[in-house]
Design goal:
The protein is mainly beta and about 525 residues long. The protein is built from 3 helices and 43 strands.
Amino acid sequence: MVKGLGSGTGSKIAAMAATVGPICLLLGSGCRSSVPIALAERAAPTLRVVHHVGGVHERTIVADDRWYQTFGCRLLVLDRRDGRLVHDVKLGEFGRTGSAVDMALVGDRAWIVLGEDAVIEVAVPANDEPRVVRRVSNEDMGIEPRQLSVVEGRVYVSGKGGVVRVDDGQRVYACEGEAGRVVTGGEGLITTVGRRVHAVADGRYLGTATDLQAMPPEALPGLNDRAELSGGVLLFVRQGQSTAAVGLMTPGVRECDTSHLTVTVHGVVNAVRFFHGRIWIVTEERVTAYTITGGRLGIRATIDIRGARDVDGLEDNYLAVAGTFGRAIYRLQDDERGAGGTTVHLHREPGRLLRAICDGRYVLVECGDGFWQYEMATGSIRPIDQPAEAGSNPEAWKPATAAVTWAGVVTFSEDQASAVIRTEEGEVRYRDPSGRRFHCVASVGGDIWLGHDGGVTALRVARPGSDSRTSAVPKLITLDSLRLPGGVRYLFPLMDGEGAVFVSDRAEVGAAVRSRP
């Protein structure tokens, strides 16, 4: 019996481990004992998400008595004392928009980027409920937004295509690649594109970095009054394939001291912050705090928190931490409330997918922080102990990359760039318009659902002669798509043939159904 699963589910999972692959290939959920009607004659459905859970907690900011946290396409307002949810602000429709990947606060306004789609302005009055004030789309800005910066009280949004000043909508910098954060340097406003730093005014190349931030004045006393830093200090990241350099630069984009004021960090840097008089570097494996003392960067604390994406300071001894595990408050050292090195007020969420399997009633999801059980009928999810059979038959955990529908057999090309539908009349190939790769396929009521890097696309095959425009080969009809920024790795059809459960790379698990007009 699989520990932690519902009654009878353990034996089903164990049995399915030996059979799920062949069943997906030979039968598919769309099989019927009777011959279906020509599906092209039906009204085209659209896809609707009926419930979903999980995802990654990205940007976290603590201000006054509130802890602001982005999660999916929502803004969570939390009590900074215990992480209790105070307000939950919907920023967009799940499945139709990007995730909230960056956030900035200016006065009583929060600015939030829905990755590649829009910038949302939210009023966050101190003693009132937050409300969405306006939405600035990527079409309005002329760029695909990714990051926010605040310079002298003005908000800038950066992304693929350049940099836009939000208050007046002016694009102050244009580029073909993806621009990074904006700071003030010796040449006025500067930004990064790839590993290069450019002046915003004229695009001149100034130096190398993949991210830049302005250090606050309170960082200066630890730098022994270096003359070259009289105009300010920049905190830089230069990300490589497996390591990154993090350190301090002059306003002229020159490293201050490569021996003492630059450190090497293993892995990918998810965030760099300055608070409590320390520089905090967040990677997938840990959070490390550095102090500036005697003109040197020295390690003050190392916290092993796997999956952290961002941190901010609560009290001097407490951190707000967010990531693929959920969100939590971390106590640094012993105090009257408890032992140091302790996570308190932890709110867990599945957020980093490793693999998944389904028995028709439950979806068992393994994430970086353990196992989760999702009930398909209700959309509820809960953490469970590791099932004893989880290590058996690894093939059963692989996504279905082939399916059978009434129209024919669906497979993927070797490079996963095409879905190939082989019918009696001929072969049809489908490529995603944005060039995304396919990862899984399911037959849903005779339609073809494809999971890819951007989400889910539903297709229908119209046989020759099934509409007024006859042709010698089948025709593909795109019914609808769902936007899931992490990409969909698994699709498990529902028993009624009207939808499927999706599992994204960010461990967002939910059910989508066909909604007919």
